[in-house]
Amino acid sequence: MKTILITGATSGFGLAIAKKFYAQGYNLILTGRRKERFAEIESILTELGEGKIHFLHFDVRNNEAVKQAVNQIPADLANSLSILVNNAGLALGRSTIDAGVTEDWDAMMDTNVKGLLYVSKAVIPLLQNNGGGQIVNIASIAGKEVYPGGNVYCASKHAVDALSRAMRIDLLKDNIAVSNIAPGAADTEFSLVRFKGDAQTAKDVYKGYTPLFAEDIADAVEFVCNRPRHVNIDDLLIMPRAQANATIFKKEEN
């Protein structure tokens, strides 16, 4: 039985990906900062499959915590690990650069870029020991374009886009495939986090059109990871039909 490790798996894309792969017979290694959600998530997942579920509680921004957690993965799961999904990430605020909050900048860069690097650095040796595998980096349309108020978030996701291409080159020798998946507007906790708990502002982001949902991205990850061995999906941009680019939408009047 194969094993998949998913960061940021307590909600949104990460949880949807976990459901998808657990139902297909994978063991799960799920990471998250919100330990209080683990029991509920486990109860939801156990209705979908019969594999093993192992939780790792750490913040991807803490390199030492990442290394310690990965080192504690049970041997049977470490030896069957074949997929890493770097999903943990966030956006904070929509300020212009001159009005930016430096604490928000730090959180975005530390999570979206350094966190991805820390986890990848710790997990890649396991994939190498297992003869190869797949890394999927969850990026964003913000890694392809910039938009007003997006500045540092866009910079962080541009870095993910670049790292995905660099990892593809560096890990080719190890039979490790690397894919970059870049969603457009998606209705998860993303906007609620970005607007720091302002539920109405977060809801208004998706008003007048049908956005992507977490399950759409889970489907994409499944597609990418289940190609024939000679095929790699390097880069996949996924948008709602109502979204043409980072800022242009077709919205219906209510």
From TrEMBL:
UniProt family annotation: Belongs to the short-chain dehydrogenases/reductases (SDR) family.
Pfam families: adh_short (PF00106)
Source organism phylogeny: Bacteria, Pseudomonadati, Bacteroidota, Flavobacteriia, Flavobacteriales
Entry keyword Amino-acid biosynthesis: no
Protein source organism: Lishizhenia tianjinensis
Keyword terms, alphabetized: Oxidoreductase
Entry's Gene Ontology molecular function annotations: oxidoreductase activity, acting on the CH-OH group of donors, NAD or NADP as acceptor
Record-given protein name: NADP-dependent 3-hydroxy acid dehydrogenase YdfG
